[in-house]
Design goal:
Blueprint (H helix, E strand, L loop, with lengths): L2 H18 L5 E7 L2 E7 L5 H8 L18 E4 L2 E4 L12 E3 L12 H8 L9 H14 L5 H7 L10 H22 L11 H5 L25 H16 L1 H13 L1
Parallel strand pairs: 1-5
Antiparallel strand pairs: 1-2, 3-4, 3-5
Helix pairs in contact: 3-6
């Protein structure tokens, strides 16, 4: 088979597949939060509309519906996506995770508890998308410092502007996960001479004593060269002792 025949065959197969999946209603088998779902939708339906209108998973909120606010953030195969810009038909045979799967019964997710502790929400409309992005952030390796958190959370807009509280919540979960990881690390053998946990911690900073410096004398007048200060004092002294100036002052005061 020549390259041209192979390309034609591939085009024919693709055309046949597209013909079977549209333009009318199609049946989809989706995995949502670990549960298999069989739905019937049009190919143009977005993942956000499918979750909210057919599966009744309203935790994912619809904000701008243009992919600019991030309120509709979900995970598809563990990656953050904007469900308002994702067609439901493209998520077949892929794992979809929404905010409803974070809490396990009455126990909330650590990130949800951190948002409550730090009051990282106000109206709460963007909170589901914020939490979905915040949970994925440490796993992606983008939560090492505030600048990195700010950069990788910029796709989630909070119109109430509680960004400092959101970063504080992410830092709390990140630090707690790091402490748990360090506690699980086994120390080396005693003859190694040091503990691995001690090695990972930064060395204490030794502050040097401040040098004792004599205070500088402050002059009430402007700082001028010594020669100019001397000439100014001499001029002032001569004006006070010159007879003509004294007579003029006396005459003026007598006339008044």
């Amino acid at each position: 088979m020549s390259v041209k025949d192979y390309a034609n065959a591939g085009t024919a197969r693709m055309a046949a597949r597209l013909a079977m999946r549209g333009p009318g209603t199609v049946n989809l088998e989706l995995s949502v939060n670990g549960t298999a779902q069989l739905v019937s939708v049009e190919p143009r339906v977005s993942l956000l509309d499918l979750l909210r209108e057919q599966l009744d998973l309203t935790g994912t909120t619809k904000g701008c519906d243009h992919g600019t606010c991030g309120a509709c953030t979900v995970w598809v195969d563990g990656r953050r996506v904007l469900s308002c810009l994702t067609l439901a038909i493209t998520c077949e045979d892929r794992g979809i995770t929404t905010t409803e799967s974070l809490a396990k019964g009455a126990a909330v997710h650590p990130m949800q508890q951190a948002f409550i502790t730090h009051d990282a929400f106000q109206c709460g409309y963007c909170t589901p998308g914020q939490i979905m992005s915040a949970v994925a952030l440490p796993d992606e390796g983008h939560a090492s410092n505030d600048a990195e958190i700010r950069e990788w959370m910029r796709g989630n807009i909070c119109r109430c502007a509680v960004y400092p509280n959101i970063r504080a919540a992410i830092r709390q979960v990140r630090d707690a996960a790091g402490a748990h990881h360090n506690a699980a690390v086994k120390p080396l053998e005693p003859n190694a001479g040091f503990d691995l946990g001690q090695r990972l911690r930064p060395a204490p900073v030794t502050r040097l004593p401040r040098a004792t410096v004599a205070p500088r004398r402050r002059c009430r007048t402007a700082r001028r060269p010594r020669r100019l200060r001397r000439s100014a004092r001499r001029t002032a002294a001569s004006c006070r002792t010159e007879p003509g100036i004294e007579r003029s002052r006396t005459t003026t005061s007598g006339n008044t």
